[in-house]
Design a protein that fits this description.
Elements: E1 4-9, E2 14-19, H1 27-34, E3 40-45, H2 50-55, H3 60-70, E4 76-81, H4 92-109, E5 117-120, E6 142-146, E7 149-153, H5 156-161, E8 178-184, E9 188-193, E10 205-208, E11 213-216
Parallel strand pairs: 3-4, 4-5
Antiparallel strand pairs: 1-2, 6-7, 8-9, 10-11
């Protein structure tokens, strides 16, 4: 089981979604994915019994929120999903109940609920994902307050656009800790890692330590 990457563009950002597995057996994969994120999108199932299972003592909603905060992901968005399967469907009281409960839990962890957008969605039907749903007229939108300014909107994609991009240390020297090296036939040796500081672009001459090998970046 690996983490899935999905890229798309919003009005403001290039977004890469890292979909980490929720199952307890794959917690290390989830940590790999989460540790590199700028913002966590916690998806909570609104269906009867589903939310209760997730927020229970050993539930995944709790576990993932705690892991995200512990790994240094300080921005959070909560998507209350499967609003089509609440009793009755698209129930305002169910959304408010979940919002209250999750707010109280994430506050204990260390998140400030005032900075967290709660969006009622249905991924299956697309409600409030990209466009405002006509089936939840009671939802007047989400609003967040933080020292960098306020933001508000109706849909999940707008909540993604309200993420505060972190300052990347691009003015420093290039440092790229290697995670792995692949040898790919017809292409050559491909080192894999994350650029921690500086800028990596084709044509740059880089030095690998401690072997002291110098090479040029091809692509």
């Amino acid at each position: 089981i690996d983490i899935a990457l999905w890229k798309f563009e919003t009005a403001k950002f290039y977004v890469t979604i890292i979909d980490a597995p929720g199952h307890r057996d794959f917690i290390k994969n989830m940590i790999t994915g989460t540790s590199q994120a700028d913002c966590a999108v916690l998806i909570v199932a609104a269906g009867t019994g589903e939310f209760e299972a997730g927020i229970s003592k050993n539930g995944q909603t709790r576990e993932h929120a705690l892991l995200a905060f512990t790994l240094g992901v300080k921005q959070l968005i909560v998507g209350v999903n499967k609003m089509d399967s609440t009793e009755p469907p698209f129930s305002e009281s169910r959304f408010e109940e979940i919002k209250k409960e999750v707010s109280s839990y994430i506050k204990k962890i260390g998140y400030n609920p005032a900075t967290v957008a709660f969006v009622p969605i249905s991924g299956w039907h697309g409600d409030n994902m990209l466009e405002v749903s006509t089936r939840m007229p009671w939802f007047k939108g989400w609003a967040v307050e933080r020292k960098e300014g306020k933001a508000d909107g109706k849909c999940l994609i707008e909540a993604l656009d309200a993420i505060l991009p972190p300052a990347r240390p691009t003015d420093k020297a290039l440092r790229l800790p290697l995670q792995d090296v692949y040898k790919i036939g017809g292409i050559g040796t491909v080192p894999v890692g994350r650029v921690e500081t500086g800028v990596l672009k084709p044509g740059t001459v880089v030095v690998f330590a401690p072997a002291n090998i110098t090479t040029e970046v091809k692509s």
